[in-house]
Automatic annotation (TrEMBL), chain A:
Superkingdom of the organism of origin: Bacteria
Topology relative to the membrane: Multi-pass membrane protein
Transmembrane spans: 21-48, 81-103, 115-135, 155-179, 215-243, 263-285, 315-341, 377-398, 405-431, 437-459, 500-522, 542-566
Listed PROSITE patterns: ABC_TM1
Organism in which the protein naturally occurs: Ancylobacter crimeensis
One Pfam family of this chain: BPD_transp_1
CDD domains, alphabetized: TM_PBP2
Domain ABC transmembrane type-1 positions: 77-282, 373-563
Name listed for the protein in its UniProt record: Iron ABC transporter permease
């Protein structure tokens, strides 16, 4: 009797073991299949294309020979590296302290700073560049006109048509990456560690540099890398601001390739390969820096919401924190909104020139704009959610080392973000217009392209949250018999929640403002806001461009606020639960 | 016989005038057959880069009103993007486009070489100005738009430069804005034309004026309206007039040494899913309705019997069009020279 019981127990254990492994296998197979479709196939096409001749269509190594010989192709790459490095450094220097001030101190107007930093994120960079042209063009920029009137000088204070101007505009619109990543990491971090430093006599600044920043290092590094990549792949800002000085960067050089006859699509594909190598090096450097250090900050204890008191530093801190909101949102949007309210923007903001026509037109009269707003929200929402699911799964497999060769998957999902959208667009076109996957003209192809492009952000964010969650909690669940899936669903996922909403926004917003990856994939029925706004810009209808941009900002901000509402609700409940469990 | 035909012409003219006043045009027998075939196909996918969003949307809506029963989808993107997309569709054997309209002749030379556009003769082609009637002996592409490149200027300029060479005069130093031939087809054809007229000396003197070089020629209007620069070179004629009509402080000067005329073209792809609908749309382009829409939006009309906005006609403007032979090489050389001299 006893032996039969032990046999049945052993049998049920072995069934459980097999079920568990079968489930794990199914999840893995599905995930790998999705990644193969989403990333391997389009990337494969890009690589395949890069070995073909644009004119004859034959196999060739000529594209690569061309990349590595003439100086004309090196110069844009060098300029892009300068731009991207400067953008990454400035974004980190602005974004990290900004995140700390908003997340951990009693600085005034924190809600405003947070909202407006997110608004900077929402703004497509070419709109920001447009706003800054109105503000700081050497002759006509409003700031320069004001400067001349005040000082009597005959030279401009600022010239936006320069490398410095370009770095500045790119940076202020990239800070939100670092800001969001780091502030979400800071919010998930327990204050006990800082308290310990303070108890031992360390001041606010010393604590920040010796405890706080090292603990959020994974998020800082991801922010730095994403900012660098953003600096490499932005097209709108350099196109507007660097063309007058004749300076080319990688993306504007690619645009030139696309203007050739026939368009040098295969050459462009080859031109992107050095970018993949550069990104690879960055991620490798990140691994070397972080090494085997532990960053577990979530250990099962509750977190207090107490803020560090800045005392006399509150106002200087606020002045610093307002740099991004003012330069990236307030000033340019004053210009953009004024233009959007004009009958003819060349007449300036005089009463007889004011009208709500362009808003009425965009919201009520023009079917194309209505459809594009709905499409943008639906695709960005769908793609961001799908992106997060895959990102979490990949990060979980990589961080918890559930599979041999997980590092390879991590590298794979990271590649698409560095490839400029216009080249990726061609990859997706090639991948999804053939049997058996003929998705051309559908919403699926656009959502798939968005998911693949922004998967690295989702994966990085999920990875840095997971680094902060101690596997001990998961092991505890496993040891009392929970399956891997159950552990993930009931322990890991809830602990990640706050960070996941931040991650979802980090994907949702860039999709809303993404232009180039959709360029060869949109159809009249699946047009999105950015492609439409670009058309109006192409046709010179700036009043419509500005009204549509203001609407895009408004629609995205509502989603940001909703998401914030959801996270804060969750954080509040969590804090309450923690305090209930505390010993009185 | 002479009197008979003159009377007929007069009567026909009066009928056309009345019809154009009512914005309708009679549907011919040939049109009927084509319409029936197109209706059977049921849909029409337009890929257009000529004309800005507003004008092409109005043309689409007029087509829908005149030919019910055909579902029309319009993809409006920049000309080169449209062309690249059609090429990708051809490469992947997934052609969706029934009518392509872009601003660059080289697109059609390339598509013709691939055998990707089909020959046919639009029924209304005889209404088009004679110079643009038989632009392709093989009839694979036809005129889709007439685009003029001129000078534009701020209304604060009382005596604008009257010619391209006048732009090289002292008062316009640091005052000129222009587009880049590497990004804009219209600017590229201006560079080809100016080099033909005046050689590279013009580019050298032009560079000394320190022009501000934007991307598209539309940027000239932006710079003038914002007050950044006063005069636009290689500027878009129609778009500048639209902005003027909207009340913006901008004016247009047609240079005495010729406006540069660039033809936008249109074709029906060989593998178009709805070829009859594509051909019907081409016919429709040469209708009175479309020319009226064009005139209203300050575009040159495609018919000799519909004057342009403000009573202008093709004859009233001195224009020059680049010769077609060897154009690809000249464009490439023009861009290279521009980069070398202007930057």
């Amino acid at each position: 009797m006893a032996s039969s019981r032990s046999v049945s127990a052993a049998r049920s254990a072995s069934v459980g073991y097999r079920c568990h492994h079968a489930f794990r296998l199914i999840v893995l197979v599905i995930l790998l299949a999705v990644l193969a479709l989403l990333i391997v196939q389009p990337l494969g096409w890009i690589v395949f294309n890069s070995f073909h001749d644009d004119v004859t269509g034959q196999w060739t190594l000529r594209n690569y020979v061309q990349i590595f010989t003439p100086t004309s192709l090196w110069a844009p790459l060098f300029n892009s590296l300068v731009l991207a490095t400067a953008v990454a450094v400035i974004s980190t220097l602005l974004g990290v302290p900004l995140a700390w001030l908003v997340a951990r101190t009693d600085m005034p107007m924190r809600g405003f700073v947070r909202l407006f930093t997110m608004a900077a994120f929402v703004t497509p960079s070419f709109i920001g560049a447009l706003g800054w042209i109105l503000l700081a063009a050497p002759n006509s920029g409003w700031l320069n006109v004001g400067w001349r009137a005040l000082s009597g000088a005959d030279w401009p204070l600022l010239s936006i048509y320069s490398m410095i101007g370009t770095i500045f505009v790119c940076s202020i619109y990239t800070v939100p990456y670092t800001f969001t990543l780091v502030s979400s990491a800071l919010e998930e971090m327990p204050v006990e560690l800082e308290d310990a430093a303070t108890t031992l006599g360390s001041g606010v600044v010393k604590t920040m540099f010796s405890v706080t920043i090292p603990l959020v290092m994974p998020a800082v590094l991801v922010g730095f890398i994403l900012s660098f990549i953003q600096g490499m792949t932005l097209f709108g800002v350099p196109a507007f601001l660097l063309t007058p000085s004749g300076t080319l960067v990688v993306t504007t050089k690619l645009a030139e390739f696309y203007q050739l006859f026939p368009p040098a699509l295969y050459m462009s594909a080859a031109y992107c390969m050095p970018l993949i190598a550069i990104t690879g090096m960055l991620f490798y450097a990140r691994r070397c820096i972080l090494g085997r250090r532990q960053f577990t900050t979530v250990g099962g204890k509750g977190r207090a919401g107490r803020k560090i008191r800045l005392k006399g530093w509150r106002l200087p801190a606020l002045a610093f924190a307002l740099i991004v909101p003012v330069t990236a949102v307030v000033l340019p949007y004053i210009a953009i909104v004024l233009v959007s309210l004009s009958r003819a923007w060349g007449l300036g903001p005089i009463p007889s020139n004011l009208t709500l026509h362009w808003y009425r037109w965009a919201i009520f009269e023009n079917a194309e704009t209505q459809r594009a707003i709905v499409n943008s929200l639906l695709y960005a929402g769908g793609a961001a959610s799908f992106c997060m699911i895959i990102g979490i799964l990949v990060a979980y497999i990589v961080e918890r080392k559930l599979l041999r060769g997980a590092g390879l998957i991590a590298a794979l999902v990271t590649i698409p973000i560095i490839i400029p959208g216009i080249v990726l667009s061609v990859g997706f076109f090639s991948a999804y217009t053939r049997q058996p996957l003929t998705l051309y003209g559908t919403a699926t192809i656009i959502i798939a392209a968005f998911v693949a492009t922004f998967l690295p952000i989702a994966y990085s964010q999920a990875g840095s949250i997971l680094k902060g969650i101690s596997p001990d909690l998961e092991r505890a669940a496993r040891s009392v018999g929970a399956t891997e899936a159950r552990t993930f669903a009931s322990i890991t996922a809830p602990l990640m929640r706050g960070g996941l909403v931040a991650g979802w926004l980090l994907v949702f917003i860039p999709i809303m403002r993404e232009l180039s990856v959709a360029i060869f994939l949109v159809s009249p029925r699946t047009n999105v806001m950015t492609t439409l706004i670009y058309n109006y810009k192409d046709g010179g209808n700036y009043e419509a461009v500005c009204a549509a941009s203001a609407l895009l900002l408004f629609a995205t901000l509502i989603v940001v606020l909703l998401a914030r509402f959801v996270t804060e609700g969750a954080a509040y409940r969590r804090r309450n639960a923690a305090s209930l469990g505390a010993v009185p | 016989m002479a009197a008979f035909s003159r009377r007929h012409v007069l009567m026909g003219g009066a009928a056309a005038l009345a019809a154009s006043a009512l914005r309708i045009s009679p549907v011919s027998a040939a049109d009927d057959a084509l319409y029936a075939a197109a209706k059977k196909e049921g849909a029409l996918n337009l890929y257009w880069g000529s004309y800005e969003q507003k004008t092409i949307e109005e043309i689409r809506d007029a087509f829908k009103a005149k030919y019910p029963g055909i579902e029309v989808s319009l993809l409006r993107q920049a000309s080169q993007t449209i062309f690249t997309r059609l090429r990708l569709e051809i490469q992947n054997d997934a052609v969706q486009c029934d009518s392509i309209g872009t601003t660059n002749l080289l697109h059609y030379k390339d598509l013709q070489k691939l055998g990707a556009i089909q020959p046919f003769k639009p029924t209304n082609i005889n209404m088009v100005p004679e110079a643009f009637r038989n632009i392709d002996p093989e009839n694979t592409y036809h005129v889709g738009a007439i685009s003029l490149t001129t000078i534009n200027q701020s209304t604060s300029v009382t005596a604008p430069p009257a010619s391209w060479t006048a732009l090289l005069d002292a008062p316009w130093a640091n005052q000129i804005t222009t587009g880049s031939p590497a990004f804009s087809g219209d600017v590229a054809s201006w560079v080809v034309a100016i080099r033909k007229k005046y050689g590279d000396d013009f580019l050298r003197a032009f560079a000394k004026q320190k022009p501000k070089v934007g991307q598209s020629n539309v940027d000239t209007v932006t710079d003038i309206l914002s007050g950044e620069r006063k005069v636009g070179s290689a500027a878009p004629f129609s778009y500048s007039l639209t902005q003027q009509a909207a009340g913006n402080p901008i004016g247009v000067t047609v240079p005495s040494d010729d406006a540069i005329l660039n033809l936008g073209l249109t074709a029906v792809p060989t593998k178009a899913p709805h070829p009859n609908a594509g051909k019907l749309f081409t016919d429709f382009l040469y209708s009175v309705e479309v020319s009226n829409i064009l005139a209203k939006n300050f575009w040159p009309t495609l018919r000799t019997d519909v004057p342009w906005a403000e009573g202008r006609t093709l004859e009233s403007i001195k224009w020059y069009r680049n010769p077609v032979d060897n154009l690809a090489a000249e464009v490439a050389e023009g861009i290279a020279k521009w980069k070398e001299i202007v930057g």
